[in-house]
Write a structure and sequence with these properties.
The complex is a heterodimer of chains A (257) and B (254). Chain A is mainly alpha-helical. In chain A, 86% of the residues lie in helices and 0% in strands. Chain A has one domain. Chain A contains nine helices and no strands. The longest helix of chain B is centred in the last third of the chain and has 18 residues, at 175-192. The chains are: A mainly alpha (257), B alpha/beta (254).
Amino acid sequence: MTFLATIGSFIFSMFAEVGRVSIFARDAVLRGLLPPWYFRQLFEQIIRIGYNSLPVVGLTAFFTGGALALQIYIGGTRYNAENLVSSIVALGITRELGPVMAGLMVTGRVAAAIAAELGTMRVTEQIDALTTLSTNPFKYLVGPRILAAVITMPILVGIADIIGIFGGFVVGTSSLGFNYAAYIKNTTDFVQVADVTSGLIKAAVFGFIIALMGCYHGFNSKGGAQGVGRATTNAVVSGSILILAANYALTSLLFSE
Amino acid sequence: MPEPHIVLENVHKSFGTKHVLKGVNVGVGKGRSLVVIGGSGSGKSVTLKCILGLLHPEKGSIRVGGKEIIGLEGPALDQMMGRFGMVFQGAALFDSLSVWRNVAFGLIQGRKMKPSEARVIAIDKLAEVGLGAELADISPAELSGGMRKRVGLARAIAPEPEIIFFDEPTTGLDPIMGDVINNLIVDSVKRLGATTITITHDMASARKIGDDIAMIYKGKIVWCGPADEIDRSNNPYVDQFIHGREEGPIEIEL
C-alpha cells in the first residue's frame, strides 16, 4: 500500500508541476511578450544569451563535426561508402546535432544563469521590489529573456551548422584524404534548404524551452542559497530533458512523409 | 467620521494548512504613521505583503482611500502600486543597476521619465538621505548595510508616494545607524506628508517612527493605540513584548 501511495503521490506531483509550468508559460507569453517592451533589457539578454554563447557553441559544433566525419568514415569503409562522409556530416549537423548540441550547451550555460539570477532576485525580494515600483516582473524579467532566446538560438544554430560542417571538412581533408573541392561540392549538392530550416525551427523552440525553464525555476526559487542552487540544477535538468523530448517530437513532425 | 486612509477588515491568509492571518482588523489615518510590532512568525510581513498585493488574502477587505485593493490586477494594480513606496528589510536593491538607476527606477519605468531628468532627481534624493553624488554610479554591491538602507529609502521616496511601507527598517544595523535611519524616515515622511505602515520588532524604532502602534500575535491584532500610550496599555501581550520577558501569554516556539 505504501508503494502504491508513493507512486500515486509521484504522479500527482508530476501533473501538478506540469500544470504550474503551463500556467507560467501562458503568463510568460501573454504578459511577457505583449507590449510594453523593455528594449534595453531585450538587447542585454540578446548579448548575454546569444553573443556570449558563441564560443561554447562554436567549439562544440567544430569537434562534433570532426568526430562525426571520423565515425562515418570508419563505418562507411565496411560498405565501401566512404564518399558519403561529407553529405552525412552536413545532414547530421543541420538536422540533428547542430540544434541539439547547441541547445544542450546553451541550456547548461544560459538556463543555469537565468535560474541563478532570478532565484537570487526572488530570495532577496528584488522581484517583489519590481512589483512595488509599478513594473510587472513578467514583462521586465521573463519576456525579454524568452524573446532573446527565441531570436538568438536560430542564429547560434545557423553558425553552429557552418562551423560543424567546417569541422567535418577539416578532418575529412586533412586526415581522411578527401579532395577539398569534391568535399565542398558533395556538401552543397546534397544539403537542401529544408534540412537547414528544420534545424532553425528546432532552435527557436529550444530557445523558448531554455529561457522558460530558467525563468520558471528561478522565479519559484525559495529557501535561500540552497533553494537557488536547487533551482539552477532543476533548470538545467528539466531544460535538457525537454529539449531531447521536443527534438524527437519535432523530428517526427517535420520529417514525417 | 471619515474612513481611515488604509483599512484592513477581517483579513485571513493561509499557506496550506498554516493559518497565518486570522482576521486582522486595523486602520491608519491619512498622514499618520502606524507601526506594527510582533514577534517572528506572528504575521507582520504577511500583513504587509497582502496590502502590497504580493499575497492574496482568502477572506476580508483591504481598502486604500476607500478603494478595495484585493483582486486588483494588471493596469489597475500598477496604478495602485504607483501610490505606494516600499523599503524592504534587505533593501532589495537591483544588483544589475547602478545606485542612481535604482533610485530612479520608479521614475523611469513607472512614470516614464527621461533618464537624464530622473538622474537629477535621484541625486537629490540621495542627498536627502545623506549620500553624496559620488555614489551615484557605483554598484549596490559596493555599499555597506546602512548605505543600502538609505538607498532603499531614497528609491521609495523618489516618486513621492502618498503611502510608504517599511519592513524592519533597522534590522541588522548598529544602534547608532538604526537611529540615523529612524530620523531619516521621520524627516522624509514629514516632508512628503505620507501615510506609513512600518513593521518592526525594534521598540526604539517603533517609538520613534510611530504615531500609533498595533501589536499582532498569532495572526490577530491584540492591541492598537497611540504610541505614547504603549507603556500604559495594560495589555499582557504588549507588556511582555516591550519588556522582552520570557514569562507571559506569548508562547515562544523553540
